[in-house]
From TrEMBL:
Source organism of this protein record: Lysinibacillus telephonicus
Necessary cofactors: thiamine diphosphate
Name of the protein described by the UniProt record: 2-oxoglutarate dehydrogenase E1 component
Example of a GO biological process term: tricarboxylic acid cycle
Protein EC: 1.2.4.2
Keyword flag Oxidoreductase: yes
GO cellular component, one term: cytosol
Enzymatic reactions: N(6)-[(R)-lipoyl]-L-lysyl-[protein] + 2-oxoglutarate + H(+) = N(6)-[(R)-S(8)-succinyldihydrolipoyl]-L-lysyl-[protein] + CO2
Residue ranges of every copy of the Transketolase-like pyrimidine-binding domain listed in the record: 588-784
Length: 932
């Protein structure tokens, strides 16, 4: 017998007389030699324990059970277990009834049982607390069938014991049942009427326009409504929803309360700004390029103060899931005090709506589940909803996945799954409340599979009968959920048929009036364009990033003042202690400068959150933000103990996941705009796995949706003989995406400049000018003496977009060549030229900020050298990669008749050579040619 389901009752109550004696003898034998006992009895003893402690001896009152058939008892227990664990396969959860149900696992014949056998068994065999009106085994089995094969189906045999017992008790005791009053039923009918009429009105009024309608899954709005109500009752501050385009407009309208006239204005190409609610309850942001209406989001503030937010999301389906969970985590945290932020999961809830084909097909779903219970990324449980229309674009389920259900992935993470028939609104209400209660109690994810259909094609201009003719024969004759529920309430006497019809007419007329208003306003006021904000058009303003020597010395002391009881690893302790003298010797390395920057930012009052696969130590063992006691493994974070700190600091080693973690940090940053949020790739080109986040959100969200982000991306980059996949951050991709001051792309060659870059970014947080920061971070430069900073540089300097090579260009008239380069290759050049002797005809300019390109600063430098004949761009990346193609256009503008030359590797399909010897030869050739 499987132990997947814990039974509340005990089988021993079914035995008396000689049969109970036989069972007791077998139990004694089980304790001595279990291999001599029948397997069926072994399973019962293992699950239910000793029969000697059982108080009851005999069947339930009125049962005609005759003692003597152990196999019948065992079979009945197996049947009950099968109903609980496999009943979902026979459940009435498919509205179109186009899926063959499997009843074979719960048929009496499969267990060699008859109804008479079951009648003879006591109900207490199946339940700990026997339901009312259940007196024998047959009634017990019938009761279980009614629960587990109805409009709601449950899969929970894979979850932990405590959760399993709780779910089973809630279901079988009837505690999860929802009894709606007549007024609540009327309100539910009105809601369904609004949902349906909204789609009908758009379909008729805006013929041929895409809306990706909710029809066939109308009760998604009901489901979300109930979750919102439950969250509001619990006095949550935030409920954040992530979903793709299917049904999005209806959710925006009826869950997030975007008024009808605002929505119809979007279809009529009238600015919806004219129709904002006067009470200020709705917030939307807009970009200057805009986006299609079914990608837009909004935030509604309820009268209680709770904010209900639907996130902006492109057509990339599941990618919004980590963004919403990150945003929810930020809403749960208090980051205003030193140390780790304090998290209260009761403040905010993430609700993630998935498509059925995308849920099974998109790997980011698995990534999101994988981090759900980790310390750095948990949110106290998300409620997942599969908006299941049983088809993916045109693809049937047999072609889109290898599992029985689209939900099966979640079971591997111990997540309960509830399937519910979308045509039963009262069942949907019940599932909403059960799921919310589970999340609140256990702090874990739960998954609702809302099974419906799609009334039209993928969009409303698509003819689905071309590819799915059989399905759409059923769909076209299938009544809507509103019609069925109206008919149900009429039969119950809650409303009359005339009232159902009148409600439909009144709501439709209300929508028509809203549209008439939109047309009138549009004709009167006309259209206007949204322009890029001035703060975005301009470069970052000059801000003070220097910190006094005295403050830096104090911070340095705080960073190295470990408790007496704490003993770090010997080698590491010596390395860190050298940071005392580094301030005097001018050898502040990259990790040291970064930590000092973090400390000063915390003292300024900005919280910091940093994640990455090795973020605490640093991929190259350069950071060491979290120290480990060598004796007991306890952790100590020096940045939690900085005198004068006014904000929290958190650094988490993330799962081996790029896409979801980048999305999570982006979402966190959107919600907490004062936090310096940083994601670091283990190696720069590992960020390839998160490309969708860069393309659709980080680089473009401001122009599309008006969303501000100050996320920092650290992408280790340098061609150093470690092979292609550990060489390039694919810098060219970020430069290709650069436009409209959408972000800053920097490739620093000096630890001090990096220090000021971070501080500048933190200073801009929360302002209109903020934008993401892409930092091509180093590897070998982390400890290179020529990349080290001095205390004076930190205390007196600022971020320099360009740096002239010291020792060169001292005689301007002799300079005939200017080399421009960025990042690590500039240090290779500096190492070769040393003090500049022998290179009087050459000057080197380090381009520390690539975007926005510092053309004017470079032009001013070139102007100082009247005899320059040649401008050379030097890079270590292949010619078809790196910055070359990007900078060429700027160089042509700067040249003013001077020759432009490229020095670097030739065009390559790979990013670098595959071994150290080949690398050294190729790298030397680049440097030799540049300085020839």
């Amino acid at each position: 017998m499987s132990n997947n389901v814990l039974f509340a009752g005990s089988p021993w109550s079914a035995f008396s007389g000689p049969n109970l004696g036989y069972v007791m003898e077998q139990y004694d034998l089980f304790l001595q030699s279990p291999e001599q006992v029948e397997p069926e009895l072994v399973a019962l003893f293992q699950q239910f324990g000793s029969p000697f402690t059982e108080g009851e001896q005999g069947g339930a009152e009125g049962a005609s059970y005759q003692p003597g058939n152990l196999k019948k008892v065992f079979a009945a227990v197996q049947l009950a277990e099968a109903i609980r664990s496999q009943g979902h396969l026979a459940a009435d959860v498919y509205p179109l009834k186009d899926r063959q149900l499997d009843t074979s696992r719960i048929d009496l014949a499969s267990y060699d049982l008859t109804e008479a056998d079951l009648v003879s068994l006591p109900a207490s065999l199946f339940f700990n607390n026997v339901p009312v009106n259940v007196t024998n085994g047959k009634q017990a089995i019938d009761y279980l069938r009614s629960i587990y094969t109805g409009k709601i189906a449950y899969e929970y045999s894979h979850v932990d014991d405590a959760e399993r017992r709780w779910i089973q008790d809630k279901i079988e005791s009837g505690k999860s049942k929802i009894s709606l009053t007549n007024e609540e039923k009327k309100a539910l009918l009105e809601r369904l009427t609004r949902v349906e009429d909204f789609e009908k009105f758009i379909h008729k009024t805006f013929v041929g326009q895409k809306r990706f309608s909710i029809e066939g899954l109308d009760t998604l709005v009901v489901l979300l409504d109930e979750i919102v109500k439950a969250a509001d009752k619990e006095k949550m501050n935030y409920l954040q929803i992530g979903m793709a385009h299917r049904g999005r407009l209806n959710v925006l309208t009826h869950v997030v309360n975007k008024p009808y006239d605002m929505m119809f204005a979007d279809f009529a190409h009238v600015p919806n700004d004219y129709f904002f609610p006067e009470d200020g309850s709705l917030e939307i942001s807009k970009g200057w390029t805009g986006d299609v209406k079914y990608h837009m989001g909004a935030t509604h503030t309820k009268k209680s103060g709770m904010k209900v937010k639907l996130a902006y999301n492109p057509s990339h389906l599941e990618v919004v899931s980590p963004i919403i969970t990150g945003s929810t985590r930020a809403a749960q945290e208090d980051t205003t005090k030193p140390g780790l932020p304090s998290q209260d999961a009761s403040k905010a809830l993430a609700v993630l709506v998935h498509g059925d084909a995308a849920f099974a097909g998109e790997g980011i779903v698995q990534e999101t589940f994988n981090y759900a219970n980790t310390s750095g990324f948990s949110t106290g449980g998300s409620i997942h909803i599969i908006s299941n229309n049983m088809i993916g674009f045109t693809t049937e389920h047999t072609d889109s996945r290898s599992t029985h259900y689209t939900t099966d992935l979640a079971k591997g993470y111990g997540i309960p799954v509830i399937h519910v028939n979308a045509d039963d609104p009262e069942a949907v209400v019940q599932v909403a409340h059960l799921s919310f209660e589970y999340r609140q109690l256990f702090g874990k994810d739960i998954l609702i599979d809302l099974i419906g259909y799609r009334r039209f094609g993928h969009n409303e201009t698509d003819d689905p009968t071309v590819t799915n003719p059989l399905t759409y024969k059923i769909v076209t004759s299938h009544p809507t959920v509103r019609a069925m529920y109206g008919e149900q309430l009429a039969k119950e006497g809650v409303v009359s048929e005339e009232q159902v019809k009148k409600l439909d007419e009144e709501i439709y007329a209300e929508m028509q009036a809203s549209y008439d208003h939109v047309k009138a306003v549009g004709a009167e006021k006309g259209h206007f364009e949204i322009e890029m904000p001035e703060a975005v058009k301009n470069d970052y303003p000059e801000v003070e990033t220097a910190v006094s020597k005295e403050e830096l010395v104090q911070i340095n002391e705080d960073l190295l003042a470990w408790p007496e009881s704490f003993e770090p690893q010997n080698k590491l302790a010596k390395i860190l202690k050298k940071r005392v003298e580094a301030l005097d010797t001018g050898k502040i390395d990259w990790g040291h400068a970064e930590t000092l920057a973090f400390a000063t930012i915390l003292r300024d009052g900005n919280p910091i959150r940093m994640t990455g696969q090795d973020a605490q130590r640093g991929t190259f063992s350069q950071r060491h933000l979290v120290l480990h006691d060598k004796n007991n493994g306890s952790e100590y974070t020096p940045l939690h103990h900085i005198s004068g700190s006014k904000a929290s600091f958190a650094v988490y080693n993330s799962p081996l996941t790029e896409a979801a973690i980048v999305g999570y940090e982006y979402g966190y940053n959107l919600e907490n705009e004062k936090a310096l949020s940083i994601w670091e790739a283990q190696f720069g080109d590992f960020a390839n796995m998160a490309q969708v986040m860069f393309d659709n959100f980080i680089s473009a969200a401001r122009s599309k949706w008006g969303q501000k982000s100050g996320l920092v991306l650290l992408l280790p980059n340098a061609i150093e003989g470690q092979g292609p996949e550990h060489s390039s951050a694919r810098l060219e991709r970020y430069l290709q995406l650069s436009a409209e001051n959408n972000w800053i792309v920097a490739n620093c060659s000096n630890a001090g400049n990096y220090y000021h870059l971070l501080r500048r970014q933190a200073k801009m947080l929360g302002t209109e000018a903020i934008r993401p920061l892409v930092v091509v971070s180093p590897k070998s430069l982390l400890r290179h003496p020529l990349a080290a900073a001095t205390l004076e540089q930190l205390s007196e300097g600022k971020f320099e977009e360009v740096i002239e090579q010291p020792g060169l260009g001292t005689n301007p008239k002799k300079v005939e060549r200017i080399l421009l380069a960025s990042g690590k290759v500039t240090i290779d050049l500096a190492d070769r030229v040393q003090d500049g002797k022998g290179f009087e005809n050459t000057h080197i300019v380090r381009v520390e900020q690539l975007y926005p390109f510092p053309s004017q600063k470079i032009s001013d430098i070139i102007a100082k050298f009247p005899n320059v004949k040649e401008i050379v761009w030097v890079q270590e990346e292949p010619k078809n990669q790196g910055p070359w193609k990007y900078v060429l256009e700027y160089l042509l503008d700067l040249a003013d008749g001077k020759k432009i030359k490229y020095v670097g590797r030739p065009e390559m399909s790979s990013t670098s050579e595959g071994d150290m010897d080949s690398h050294k030869i190729a790298q030397a050739k680049v440097i030799d040619e540049a300085l020839a």
